[in-house]
Every structure is written in C-alpha cells, then in structure tokens.
C-alpha cells in the first residue's frame, strides 16, 4: 500500500458520482460553448434604424387625445409650442385640465365667453411671464393651438375663439392632420376666420 497524506477522502465509488459532481475526478474536460452574436447584432441594428426613423426632432408639441378626430389639411406648417385648447364632443380641455362641458356650453345661448377658459389661459400667460421674466429678448406672441374634433359645432368653436381673444391670445392655430401622413400641422386663422 502506498503512503498517502492523512485526511478525509470519499470512497472510490463516490469520486466520479453525480452527487459529488465529479469534484474529485482527475480528468477535467474543457467546456467551450460558442455563442453566435451575428443575429443579435443584426437585430440591434434594425432596432436602432427603426428608432431613428421614429424620432421627432421637434419634440411632442401636441398630445393627440383618443376622443378627438382632427380634420385633414393639404397645406399647413409645423405646430409651435403654445397652450393647447382641446375641444372634443363632450368637454373643453386646456393643457390637460377640463374647463367646460360642451353640453352646458351648447345650452347657454346668450353668452359668447367661457369664464373658466379665460381664467385658465390667463394663468398660462402668467406662468409664461414668470418663466421669461429675466429674458427681455423673448416677446410673448399670444399663440394658442386649438385642437377641435371634426364633429364639434362651429358655435362651440366660436365661443372658444372669443374666449381666447378676451384672454389676450390673438395668434390662433388650428391643429389638423396632414392629408398625406398622420402628422399634425397648424393652419393659422386668417383675419376673417377667427
């Protein structure tokens, strides 16, 4: 019998068993698993190209609401950043805050102005003045974007336009979809249209 260093050793039958995992086995086999990265690189390239095509350099100016279907326009221009007055079949919303119900506006026959809309637009002007108080070169233009549903009666749009004028917003743009694509464009109101 050869001379061995003292210590605990497993029995011969356990040295190569699955329980010990071949921990004491003398011959280790190399396990090289190769990963093919070419399809992964192709997929990532396609994702990058897709995201670059979908990227808008102008940013998100107009939030498209589900319940508003914009009219189509053949000629227009890019929408500038301004407060958004959204007129759906049920409500009038200014920058995400509901100011009036269309049913109530339709039932009131004698008045043209919408006081809650005027107040909200004046608050937006105060906020703009506070943000730009240290920038004398920046001049307030009084721009507002109106996003009106196709089916909204003109008498409601007329009341919204009147309220915008009373609040000091005379530069009115109507949001419309470009006839060729689904991009929103602004159609400025002419002198006889607003």
Automatic annotation (TrEMBL):
GO cellular component, one term: plasma membrane
Keyword Transmembrane: yes
Membrane-topology annotation of the record: Single-pass membrane protein; Single-pass type II membrane protein
Gene Ontology biological-process entries: protein transport
MF GO annotations: transmembrane transporter activity
Pfam family, one: ExbD
Keywords for the protein's UniProt record, in alphabetical order: Cell membrane, Membrane, Protein transport, Transmembrane, Transmembrane helix, Transport
Compartment list: Cell membrane
UniProt similarity note: Belongs to the ExbD/TolR family.
Protein name: Adventurous gliding motility protein S
